[in-house]
Amino acid sequence: MAVRHQLIERAPTALWTVLKDPSRFADWVVGTSNSAPREGRWPELGSSLTYTVKLGRKKAEGFTVVRRYEPPRYLELEAHAGEESARIAFDILPWGDDTLVIVDEHPLRGLSGSLHNTVLDALIQIRHRKMLSRLAQLVEEEAAASRPANAGQRGDAPPPSAVTGNPQSRKR
Fold this sequence. Notes:
Blueprint: E1 2-8, H1 12-19, H2 25-28, E2 32-39, E3 48-55, E4 58-70, E5 74-81, E6 84-95, E7 98-109, H3 111-114, H4 118-146, H5 160-164
Antiparallel strand pairs: 1-7, 2-3, 3-4, 4-5, 5-6, 6-7
């Protein structure tokens, strides 16, 4: 199975801010570029976006359709490139102050759907590792950039010393 997880050091709302922006899709999905809305209002059920898939010097147009949209917990997509299609499911879990993202991808149609095997799953795992790392970095950077300058390091709460006082500063 091509299932992978990533802990993102931000709340689920910060992750959804990135997932809801169709122009950011190519920033975190490995192999895609130039994403743009296609139909509907991304990522509502049935909406879609387009992008370019780059494989070396070759380019192909692709599109992704939202098949399940249940925020804040689930987002399932069907990606199409040529005759190929795949199901990509995101399970989004609050994990303390952070977010645990579990992605599960399986080919549906085309040659990869017919020849789906453990080797293909291993390749998808490598792609997911990079994709989830990019997504985490993007979410964490955007959340850090949008927090007030006087907020705590992660923007969640002030540091404990600001609330309770720092015992080290009370030396007499």
